[in-house]
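Action item from last meeting closed. Structure (165 res):
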């Protein structure tokens, strides 16, 4: 079972998410989840390599899964003036306070429980989801996510924009 092992609130500056995007119906995702195959495609087609050509404009070297109401983007967090490569999508993020949960467990458990575990923790601190933002994000930190512990667990960072309740 996945567990929340770290939690904190942080101010994010104005940023841009750049990557490749697919449409997702979150209500119907279930067993036909297109996201793992989309990650494979992005690794194979050099999606991240193209972004990494501008290392001085990257905010965080971790890859992100950026989720909105009806889409999923495999990409990176970059500076607001990052030049968007042809064929890529972007979303400009205004400065925002975020709750960050470090979720530890087996892959599927981490993905299935990250939002609820982080949401529960942020509510205990007097915050709620900032609905104006309309997004949440998985951040795949190296080495927390890329190096498994002896039990095969990973740690994924999960971001939720928040405001005081």
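Sequence:
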């Amino acid at each position: 079972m996945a567990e929340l092992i770290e939690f904190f609130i942080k101010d994010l500056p104005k940023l841009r998410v750049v990557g490749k995007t697919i449409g997702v119906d979150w209500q119907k995702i279930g067993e036909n989840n297109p996201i793992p195959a989309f990650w494979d495609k992005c690794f194979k087609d050099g999606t991240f390599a193209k972004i990494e050509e501008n290392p001085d404009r990257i905010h965080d070297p971790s890859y992100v899964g950026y989720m909105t109401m009806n889409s999923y983007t495999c990409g990176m967090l970059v500076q607001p003036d990052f030049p968007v490569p042809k064929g890529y999508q972007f979303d400009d993020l205004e400065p925002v306070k975020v709750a960050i949960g470090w979720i530890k467990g087996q892959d599927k458990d981490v993905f299935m429980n990250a939002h609820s575990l982080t949401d529960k923790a942020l509510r205990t601190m007097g915050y709620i989801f900032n609905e104006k933002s309309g997004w949440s994000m998985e951040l795949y930190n190296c080495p927390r996510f890329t190096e498994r512990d002896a039990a095969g667990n990973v740690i994924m960072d999960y971001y939720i924009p928040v405001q005081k309740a």
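Note appended to the action item: The first helix runs from residue 35 to 44.
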